[in-house]
């Protein structure tokens, strides 16, 4: 069935459909194909579904002059160009491309009377180079078969693009650079350079995917590193386009003062910067007798010479998290079945290694590190997220505390995530790192400054610990 006939039936079919997904569409979203902006119907927008960027397949298919066939009974759409046939089923992650089964990140859905699919599917299966500008809410599509230079931010190249690994997230927290990727494992090339002092991380065979952080049209971006005294800037770019290579540069005050270790775990690269130095206060290890009580270590992040991130009002993260941790301390001291140890209860700076050593020497049952989040370049970013590292016990603890925090605070649920952060990676007990909320977000910063919200957060953490320990 050709497009005009298909569109007539599709329009009739869509009259009986409505979206029940509760997904938000960006009002100013745009799609560029080979450098030209596509004319979108008024009810068609780029959409975010379960953290996946979704685009209307009908618009892309029509502008690429594919044949489209809709099977209403099967709720299946077939897109054909020459001998290549792509079959998609609404609400199903399984699709067929040239008679081969593939799995999508998110199932196709009908939203606002339009069939939408994940942008990654379009990139990998329809022969397009795709870039998503999260800040501007713009999709850039390039038909690589036409050899066009495309829109700013597109990759050049041919079918090799399909085998590239996609960089999906870059964060810098606790003096650690964490890069998330999908695709095949990447071996980074790390170089230290001077004038200016900097750490250069090259990721061969990579391009940007559905990035959480903003990218400009030249595929460049920066991270907020305020509060890290030895790091002046973290920037990233698509350094090479054919083949792809993402480069991340960490500018330092003095490269001699920095040691680092790298780990490639699953789909993440971790580069851990350990600033050697001064103004470090060792954590006293208090012997804990075997009383039969559960040993809980509470770790307020940062402290002393390490302020952590700086909030939108200019206050250091270390103060917010210590305030919450002291309220946790007050509650846990009333629990007869729990032996409490704090990594700090004043404004001192234990290193992350010392925090880990303390918890391990105590043979603790639970380790909880408390932090605040920040993305100054995106002040609308918000919500609570919780990190664990691999161990099943840590994941269970993370899920329990996270659910209680989200319910108690009412912040956006950013989920429970597997993260290779030193204090939860190198501790040997069930360990979690809590990002309570965003100090770069005016509303959440105000809330986290209040006694009421700090008390709610502390109670949720304590209740979660007790539930996990069965107390």
TrEMBL record:
CDD domains: MurNAc-LAA (cd02696). One of its GO terms (molecular function) is N-acetylmuramoyl-L-alanine amidase activity. One of its GO terms (biological process) is peptidoglycan catabolic process. Residues 1-24 form the signal peptide. Residues 356-466 form the MurNAc-LAA domain. GO terms for cellular component: outer membrane-bounded periplasmic space. Keywords: Hydrolase, Signal. The keyword Transmembrane helix does not apply. This is AMIN domain-containing protein. It comes from Paenibacillus xylanilyticus.
